[in-house]
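The pair is quoted verbatim underneath.

:::
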Amino acid sequence: MLTMNEDLEGALKTYLQLLEEEEYFEAHEVLEEAWHPLRLNNHPLKNLAKGLINGAITFEHIKRKRDNAGIKAKRVIASYERHKYLCTDEIEYAEAFKKACEKIEALKIKHAEVFDVLVSR
């Protein structure tokens, strides 16, 4: 049986791969599964993980091009924006978390027309 930490590490790796493949909903699902034990155990990384989960779903809204996708994306990205400061060199799996945050930031730049106020160049 895998430990919570092994599940988190694997989920982060899979999350990154799915983001690269623009499979945002699936990325959200994978990390959400690893997030549940974090939340239940009040783990210090629960909010950062939740922010990344919402980061992925943000880009699913944009990908689906539904009515009000930009408004929904801005609303959902707020959780990521609120918690991204938790990504520091001192946390467990810092490298994987940093790569995930960097990918979300790159996606924000790619979709700057939606996130103009959040993207600094």
